[in-house]
Design brief:
about 325 residues
């Protein structure tokens, strides 16, 4: 599956002219040189298309694909379709990576004979940088352990934090309005024999106003993603149905709690609680032993009164 040792780096590009050079330069400067960079231009209108072509002229390892505007999922699937590498690595076009990122991740992929390698991340704000890691110490996980951790949020779904052996990328990248990584990552994890996670951070995730993260109220889509994930897990026998139901309810309770605390209109928050409560009925019954006392108490509160849930939680 793919050219041995080659890492295919896939970057969707759409109107990021101010950031693209930094992103591509961080790839050019990698200590590991056996890579191809696929810049999938999503019909940019700010000069990013021209910058992509200029970069391709400078380095033969860079290929530009000019798509009709279809969004990041279409762009990533286009990249996957033409990639030649044994490994796949995904980046966002306004972020950047440390110079030894590819070398570090590939060495550990080979050393531990795993199919996915994950690292931490730096959230880079205008005046500070915040480190986020997902494990307390470096570890190798079985497929079952990794899958349970990713669907409970203990491991990242965010694609750029992970190096993927091409053989696990079997389903298309899911084309949904938001939370695409949540809708896709667990499926690829389900095909891995083993996953290695490390406390070292290599990816710089630029936090800027105007990005999708900060301009969309996307929480409602998570309910659909949780439903699809439960169906996929049960259908493929990846987890016992009662355990999958309990995990789904735990995730919905957390979603409700986080949304209740958002600085939004109270009416909007209460309406969302009704939506969560309605969808949660599909996974009942789930008991206190499966949820833990705090989650079980929040569940009872949400069932009794969404308005009270918003006020108290």
């Amino acid at each position: 599956m793919g050219e041995e040792g080659l890492i295919s780096i896939i970057i969707p590009v759409y109107n990021v002219s101010d950031y693209l050079d930094t992103c591509v330069t961080s790839v050019i400067c990698q200590t590991y040189s056996q890579w191809e960079l696929l810049l999938v231009d999503d019909e940019s209108t700010d000069g990013s298309s021209t910058k992509c072509d200029e970069w391709a002229e400078k380095d033969h390892r860079i290929t530009v694909i000019h798509n009709q505007h279809g969004g990041p999922a279409v762009a990533r699937n286009t990249g996957i379709g033409v990639a030649h590498g044994e490994y796949l690595y995904f980046m966002d076009s306004d972020d950047w990576i440390e110079p030894d990122t590819l070398e570090y991740m590939l060495e550990r992929m080979r050393q531990y004979d795993v199919d996915i390698v994950g690292c931490g991340v730096y959230f880079d704000y205008p005046t500070r940088s915040k480190l986020k890691v997902y494990v307390k110490k470096d570890c190798v996980l079985s497929r079952e352990e990794a899958l349970h951790m990713i669907i409970t949020g203990a491991l990242p779904s965010y694609l750029p934090l992970l190096l993927w052996r091409r053989s696990v990328v079997q389903e298309p990248y899911v084309d949904v309005p938001c939370y695409e990584d949540y809708a896709t990552g667990y499926k690829w994890f389900s095909h891995a024999r083993k996953v290695a996670m490390f406390t070292t951070a290599k990816y710089h995730y630029i936090q800027r106003q105007g990005s999708i993260l900060h301009t969309s109220r996307r929480d409602k889509f998570l309910i659909d993603i949780y439903r699809e994930r439960h169906s996929y897990i049960v259908e493929h026998g990846l987890m016992a149905e009662d355990e999958s139901r309990a995990v789904t309810v735990r995730n919905l309770i957390k979603l409700a709690k986080d949304f209740a605390r958002k600085p939004l209109d109270k009416k909007e928050r209460i309406e969302f609680m009704y939506l969560v409560r309605e969808n949660m009925q599909k996974y009942m019954p789930v008991g206190i032993k499966q949820l833990g006392l705090k989650r079980w108490w929040r569940l009872q509160l949400l069932k009794a009164s969404p308005a009270l849930f918003v006020r108290i939680v």
